[in-house]
Amino acid sequence: xxxxxxxxxxxxxxxxxxxxxxxxxxxxxxxxxxxxxxxxxxxxxxxxxxxxxxxxxxxxxxxxxxxxxxxxxxxxxxxxxxxxxxxxxxxxxxxxxxxxxxxxxxxxxxxxxxxxxxxxxxxxxxxxxxxxxxxxxxxxxxxxxxxxxxxxxxxxxxxxxxxx
Length: 164
Hints:
By secondary structure, the chain is mostly helical. The chain has one domain. Helix content is 95%, strand content 0%. Helix 2 (7-143) crosses helix 3 (150-163).
């Protein structure tokens, strides 16, 4: 078979050229392109590492700012609570003073009212005693036919009212 006899000659030249082309491709890609690609990958890795480091520093700065913010906020809250407590204390003190002043005014008003009531009671009692004395004079005159003077009738009425 003539086809089989030519295999060694044909395949040998094909293997030679295959080796030459693969070698050329290896040299072109392996020594020409791979270092450029590796350099690009290394630059990208360095850039990513730098960005990560920068992000960590920014995170630390943000954490420090947040801590300062929280400290300022806590201080402001404490100051507000202190101000609120002082305001409540001042309001309570003013209310207490107003109540004390009102109590004094009420006490004075009560004392005046009690004095007026006592004066009216005394006046009413005196008027009642005078009426009772007149009524006593009239009854004695009508019942016994005796005329009693006003002083005697008044003393009799006072004497009877002390027993009541």
